[in-house]
Q: What sequence folds into this?
């Protein structure tokens, strides 16, 4: 126990020499959350310059709002890139919608065009529905979640996995690259102590720092959202499982890479790629088959599913737990093997003894 | 039985022969010096002794055991003071020793007592709670020596222990080493500082290009030059001996 405590203490106290890396590991998920989720925490009203404002259709647009009450369109006479003109007033005659609308978008951004077109289609549908509610098509939606999470809540949950990946990989990696950097690795190479103790000490040192990082992230997210989305007890198990794997793989990388800066870049790029290709941005429906296959075999997609299940009661199965556990067991095996061969056991040359 | 036996050891790094049929033996309580210019194979010899490297041929025995076969057991038998001090700059002396103890000591019950004893020995008790980044080169060397003593090994291996240390600091380190030898520990030291070898070592081996050049006590080596042939009235210094055997050109 004392041995492990000394190792944990060393790991935490030696943070100073790589403080910038630790700060980045802490801030990255928070900044990521602010960028991706913070800007989407409210419904957006599209500015529109509607040239004809005295028709029934224009009046109905004012009532065309999101469930939260935010208007989808907002009249803005200064808007210079979107003009809508009702050249022939819209009417419903014999259950048919007729009329003519010109939508002129002075932008070459396909995404903007698509978004405005979608909202105009919605506005037309809404107009038709308000005119003939009994004739309107009834659409029944079945959501993935019991209650659809907001964008910001969804990202807060998903980015938790990115944060775990980044800090776990980075702290695990630094726990060995620091030894190479300070030429302390020979101390480990000559240690008579069983590698399991040493690897456990290194792991726990990184784990303590990682847990501090994730607690700070959860606190920040909770304050920003003004609600606790990580409120199910199983989130603790998910965080532990994800950290165990990330730190173990990070330690393995640290033994191989040896240089802190290379390790940092690897951890940052690696965690970003794994998270994006693990469905961190949301559903993979509609993506190319190859991408869907990568997402399916990427264990990170299982962690994302588990977190979404924990936070929003999304779908998850036993495989989503067993697969990451299997990856963890394999990682532990390879870490022990690498440490034993590279550090614990003396280096072989040509002569056999 | 010799504490250390090194017999006809060859170690090659691709085409470079670092140790070329190197042979020597060290007895218990002896301070044995391996003297050679830069790149002569001194650090390779230490790495071979510790089992950090394996030889291409030859025989190595420490306390009658092979570092290749019995490496696990032998790691308790020696303490290494590496050329670079390898200390954590953010930690203080006690914390550095605690961490090293967690790597080298089986029983940590008396760790605090051991650490204070070692800090007394290397005269760092009054700076024990200062971060290593505030230490001078000499202080780091002393702590590095102290760290090698934590598990009370029988053999201490020192790789250029006074490298970059001033004269006063060097003399103090020599005194520690002599004290350790008097307590029965076997000391193996590599150096290219003549005064260090002269003052410290009971037996010396001069090597160059990884080969044995001359072996004996410092006095025997001085005598081997033939005092009458030197015009200066005083005896030749060990520097003279060293340069006689290894030549004057720089080896960088």
A:
């Amino acid at each position: 126990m004392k041995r492990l405590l000394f190792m944990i203490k060393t790991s935490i106290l030696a943070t100073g020499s790589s403080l910038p890396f630790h700060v980045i590991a802490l801030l990255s998920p928070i900044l990521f959350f602010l960028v991706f989720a913070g800007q989407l925490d409210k419904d957006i009203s599209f500015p529109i310059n509607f040239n004809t404002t005295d028709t029934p259709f224009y009046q109905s647009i004012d009532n065309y709002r999101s469930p939260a009450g935010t208007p989808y369109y907002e009249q803005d006479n200064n808007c210079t890139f979107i003009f809508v003109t009702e050249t022939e007033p819209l009417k419903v005659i014999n259950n048919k919608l007729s009329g003519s609308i010109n939508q002129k978008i002075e932008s070459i951004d396909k995404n903007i065009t698509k978004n405005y077109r979608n909202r105009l289609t919605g506005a037309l549908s809404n107009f038709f529905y308000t005119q003939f509610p009994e004739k309107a098509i009834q659409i029944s939606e079945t959501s993935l979640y019991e209650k659809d999470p907001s964008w910001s809540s969804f990202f807060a949950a998903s980015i938790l996995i990115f944060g775990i990946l980044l800090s776990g990989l980075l702290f695990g990696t630094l726990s060995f690259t620091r030894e190479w950097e300070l030429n302390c690795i020979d101390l480990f190479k000559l240690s008579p102590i069983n590698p399991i103790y040493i690897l456990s000490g290194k792991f726990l040192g990184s784990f303590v720092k990682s847990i501090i990082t994730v607690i700070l992230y959860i606190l920040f997210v909770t304050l920003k959202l003004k609600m606790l989305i990580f409120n199910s007890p199983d989130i603790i198990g998910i965080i532990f499982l994800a950290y165990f794997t990330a730190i173990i793989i990070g330690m393995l990388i640290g033994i191989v890479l040896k240089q802190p800066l290379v390790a940092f870049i690897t951890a940052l790029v690696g965690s970003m790629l794994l998270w994006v290709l693990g469905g961190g941005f949301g559903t993979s429906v509609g993506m190319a088959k190859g991408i869907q296959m990568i997402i399916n075999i990427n264990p990170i997609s299982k962690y994302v599913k588990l977190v979404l299940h924990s936070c929003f009661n999304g779908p998850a199965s036993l495989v989503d737990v067993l697969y990451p556990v299997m990856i963890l067991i394999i990682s532990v095996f390879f870490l022990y093997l690498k440490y034993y061969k590279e550090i614990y056991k003396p280096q072989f040359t040509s002569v056999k003894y | 039985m010799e504490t250390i036996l090194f017999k006809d050891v060859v170690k090659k790094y691709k085409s470079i022969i670092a140790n070329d049929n190197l042979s020597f033996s060290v007895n218990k309580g002896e301070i044995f010096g391996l003297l050679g210019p830069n790149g002569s194979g001194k650090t390779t010899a230490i790495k071979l002794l510790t089992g950090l490297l394996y030889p291409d041929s030859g025989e190595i025995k420490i306390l009658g055991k092979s570092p290749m076969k019995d490496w696990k057991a032998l790691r308790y038998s020696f303490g290494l003071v590496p050329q670079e001090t390898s200390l954590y700059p953010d930690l203080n002396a006690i914390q550095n020793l605690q961490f090293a103890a967690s790597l080298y000591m089986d029983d940590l019950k008396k760790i605090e007592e051991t650490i204070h004893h070692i800090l007394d020995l290397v005269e760092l008790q009054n700076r024990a709670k200062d971060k290593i980044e505030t230490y001078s080169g000499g202080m780091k060397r002393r702590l590095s020596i102290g760290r090698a003593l934590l598990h009370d090994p029988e053999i201490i291996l020192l790789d250029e222990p006074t490298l970059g240390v001033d004269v006063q600091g060097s003399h103090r380190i020599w005194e520690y080493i002599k004290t350790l030898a008097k307590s029965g520990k076997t000391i193996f030291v590599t150096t290219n500082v003549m005064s260090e070898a002269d003052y410290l070592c009971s037996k010396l081996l001069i090597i160059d290009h990884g080969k044995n050049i001359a072996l004996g006590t410092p006095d025997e080596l001085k005598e081997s030059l033939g005092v009458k042939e030197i015009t200066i009235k005083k005896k030749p210094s060990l520097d003279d001996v060293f340069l006689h055997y290894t030549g004057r050109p720089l080896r960088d």
Notes: The beta strands of chain A are 46-50, 73-75, 82-93, 96-105. Chain A touches chain B at residues 2-4, 6-7, 9-10, 13-17, 182-184, 186-193, 197-198, 201, 345-351, 353 (CB under 8 Å).
